[in-house]
User: Which sequence fits this backbone?
């Protein structure tokens, strides 16, 4: 690997540790929230925001030429907030106000209260449709903005998602990327037991998308996938990211079906942070 790329990868890896720490600390302090759903998408978000993929400016959050990032699985808000803080949208200390009365860091993202949040999400199934709207608007306005949407695999059972997939394919929205956080679990159990999705790559391809499957925790594979999407013309792109729900914390990884929407208990926090390799 060339030296510059190795250094970039090390920088991103360090950021993934910081973001994982912030997710754990904020949700444990709040006593509620969705750490496991946030931890599975850390490499995806880190690469997008800090790997030179997404074009954004915290000083000008409404810049019409910005790219859009939409977290369709809005319950993973602690992951989004940790990334937005790191990106400079607000001070990192504010993460400690997560889910507190009056805080703009609500349990689910609220676009009217927090700059950097592009869509108010949490009612699953809607984010890709919003992304389609942004992608189409950019095309009509003649702007080269790109739109990235993260959806969950349990969320992918929602019919509205497939309407958006069909529309984007039919209209060749090549400025739209859907990233599926395929962590294998939804709220009450395994996706494969409740509403199997696979073969997901072929499903997206059948709807006219370019699709590829990656290891969503390999920064190299994630970075390559974001390079790949920007080279595709005439079709929207799907990145099917195989991930682990609760990635980085053995307590959560050991029983993902049991930890949805539950914070790490205070007495387990120190061990979790040690496993993450969290910087002080
Ligand atoms: C329309 C709708 N139905 C149900 C819920 C409740 N709910 C919140 S998270 C969740 C599971 C989501 O699973 P998945 O999309 O796989 O996300 P993960 O947490 O695994 O990343 C459910 C059913 C919701 N938020 N919205
Ligand atoms: Mg899931």
Assistant:
């Amino acid at each position: 690997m060339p030296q510059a790329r190795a250094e970039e990868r090390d920088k991103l890896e360090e950021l993934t540790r910081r973001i994982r720490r912030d997710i754990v600390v904020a949700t444990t302090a709040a006593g509620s929230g969705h750490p496991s759903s946030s931890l599975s998408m850390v490499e995806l978000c880190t690469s997008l925001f800090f790997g030179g993929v997404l074009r954004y400016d915290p000083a000008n959050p409404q810049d019409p030429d910005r790219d859009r990032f939409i977290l369709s699985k809005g319950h993973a808000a602690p992951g989004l907030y940790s990334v937005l803080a790191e990106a400079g949208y607000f001070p990192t200390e504010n993460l400690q106000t997560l889910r507190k009365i009056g805080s703009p860091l609500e349990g689910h993202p609220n676009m009217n209260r927090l700059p950097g949040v592009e869509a108010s999400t949490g009612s699953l199934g809607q984010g890709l449709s919003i992304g389609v709207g942004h992608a189409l608007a950019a095309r009509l306005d003649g702007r080269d903005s790109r739109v990235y949407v993260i959806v969950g695999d349990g969320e992918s059972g929602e019919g509205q998602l497939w309407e958006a997939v069909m529309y984007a394919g039919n209209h060749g929205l090549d400025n739209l990327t859907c990233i599926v956080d395929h962590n294998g679990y939804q709220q009450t159990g395994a996706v494969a037991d409740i509403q199997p999705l696979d073969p997901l790559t072929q499903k997206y391809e059948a709807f006219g998308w370019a699709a590829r499957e990656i290891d969503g925790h390999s920064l190299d594979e994630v970075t390559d996938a974001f390079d790949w999407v920007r080279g595709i013309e005439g079709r929207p792109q799907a990145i099917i990211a195989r991930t682990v729900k609760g990635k980085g914390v053995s307590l959560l990884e050991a029983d993902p079906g049991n930890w949805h929407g539950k914070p790490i208990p205070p007495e387990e926090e120190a061990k979790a942070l040690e496993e993450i390799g969290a910087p002080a």
Q: What stands out?
A: The chain has a mean pLDDT of 97. Residues 152-154, 183, 185-186 surround magnesium ion (ligand 2) (CB under 6 Å).
